[in-house]
């Protein structure tokens, strides 16, 4: 279709692939007519070396004109990065996501190891599975988890493994390590993690069952997806321990506590409910 080369956030370059754009717009719930229109407009605005970020921004702005609901879902990757700058909201996000997927979770648990104590980001269990989860958060695109991260996780896991067995009566339930990131893993990180039996979850791994698919399956989106919230609004809400769009739907007083103008509340709730499909749940 085109010989245009695009530049990814990592600096890597590759040919422009319109199918990727169409696929991401489809997953966001955009109508076919809207997808065709955006793809055609983007095609005429391409130039050699254009960044994937610029393509994303162009598509997002055009999608907003058609559907705030689809635009909010389309910006999921960026919205998760906006949960920063610290990693704690991301830990809560993962805990809440796993709760929605029928895990029982605890966030920020301190466990004494054989040598030192450790704060475990998330402890999760489901059936016969029992996990110590480390959440590696990045708030910039292009950053990947390299092999040093699963190496570090494995050493922590070995120190705390015995004590985890007795935590909350799990003597007969062998724990497993689980590494979660909102970006991607290097090939070495994946190779080492899989060799050591660490469960690995990134934005696009495992293929077809990565973080983006789990969020879509759980229909649980971060409040940072909402374009009706300013950056200040988002940070104020996060400081109040709100992470998800559903937090605002369930507790409307949060917006007042965050100092959000009451005239904005209805628009925020309307967008949050649309993104969550709240009326259909």
Question: Would you mind describing this structure in some detail?
Answer:
The protein is of the alpha/beta class. The chain contains 13 helices and nine strands. The chain has helices at about 20-25, 30-45, 50-65, 70-75, 75-80, 90-100, 150-165, 185-195, 210-220, 230-240, 245-250, 255, 260-275, and strands spanning about 5, 15, 105-110, 115-125, 130-135, 145, 175-180, 185, 200. Strands 3-4-5-7-9 form a five-stranded mixed sheet. A hairpin with a 4-residue loop joins strand 3 (about 105-110) and strand 4 (about 115-125). The model has no long low-confidence stretch (mean pLDDT about 90).
Please identify the structural class as seen in this structure.
alpha/beta
> What is the strand content?
15-25%
Q: Give the assembly state of these chains.
A: single chain
Would you list the SSEs in sequence order as H and E?
EEHHHHHHEEEEHEEHEHHHHH
Task: Enumerate how many helices there are, as a single number.
Answer: 13
CATH class of the largest domain: Alpha Beta
Number of domains: 3
Largest beta sheet: strand ordering = 3-4-5-7-9
What's the number of extended β-strand segments? 9
Cα distance spanning the termini = 41 Å
Indicate the overall shape: globular
**Main pleated-sheet profile:** 5 strands, mixed
Alpha carbon gyration radius = 20 Å
* CATH topology value of the largest domain: Trna Endonuclease, Chain: A, domain 1
Range of helix content: 40-55%
């Amino acid at each position: 279709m085109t010989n245009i080369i695009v530049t990814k956030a990592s600096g890597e370059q590759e040919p422009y692939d319109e199918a990727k754009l169409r696929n991401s717009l489809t997953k966001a719930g955009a109508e076919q007519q809207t997808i065709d229109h955006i793809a055609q407009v983007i095609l005429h605005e391409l130039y050699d070396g254009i960044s994937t970020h610029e393509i994303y921004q162009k598509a997002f702005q055009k999608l907003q004109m058609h559907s705030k609901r689809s635009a909010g879902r389309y910006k999921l990757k960026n919205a998760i990065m906006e949960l920063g700058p610290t990693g704690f909201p991301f830990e809560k996000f993962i805990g809440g996501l796993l709760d929605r997927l029928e895990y029982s979770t605890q966030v920020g648990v301190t466990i004494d190891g054989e040598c030192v104590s450790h704060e475990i980001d998330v402890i999760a269990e489901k059936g016969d599975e029992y996990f110590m989860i480390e959440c590696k958060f990045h708030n910039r695109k292009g950053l990947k988890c390299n092999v040093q991260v699963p190496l570090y996780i494995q050493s922590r896991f070995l120190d705390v493994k015995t004590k985890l067995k007795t935590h909350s009566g799990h003597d007969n339930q062998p724990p497993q390590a689980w590494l979660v990131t909102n970006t991607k893993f290097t090939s070495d990180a994946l190779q080492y993690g899989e060799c050591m039996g660490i469960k690995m979850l990134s934005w696009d791994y495992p293929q077809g069952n990565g973080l983006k698919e789990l969020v879509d399956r759980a229909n649980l989106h971060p409040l940072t997806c909402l374009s009706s919230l300013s950056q200040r609004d988002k940070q104020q809400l996060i400081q109040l321990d709100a992470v998800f769009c559903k937090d605002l739907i369930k507790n409307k007083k949060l917006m007042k506590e965050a100092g959000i103008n009451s005239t904005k509340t209805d628009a925020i709730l309307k967008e949050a409910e649309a993104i969550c499909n709240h009326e259909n749940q």
